[in-house]
Write a structure and sequence with these properties.
- By secondary structure, this protein is mainly alpha-helical.
- It is built from four helices and two strands; from the N terminus they run αααββα.
- Helix content is 57%, strand content 11%.
- The longest helix has 14 residues.
- The radius of gyration is 15 Å and the shape is globular.
Amino acid sequence: MWNNDINNIEEVVIYLNSELSKGRTQKDIEINDFKVNERVIAKRLISRGYRKIDNQYIKTNESSKAINTTISECDN
């Protein structure tokens, strides 16, 4: 399933999120389904702008992170 194809990332995220929501561990999914070592998929997704929030991967927007940081700093 994982072939480092940039066009396949969304399919990987959908599959991974689906399996995580069923209660499977990320380690189990990576080793048994993707046939890679633990944390390989996670690191690749993170490097492509995804973050794991509430046990689901979501695409982050760098500009919104900068805005949130600025707002938080102003509140203090």
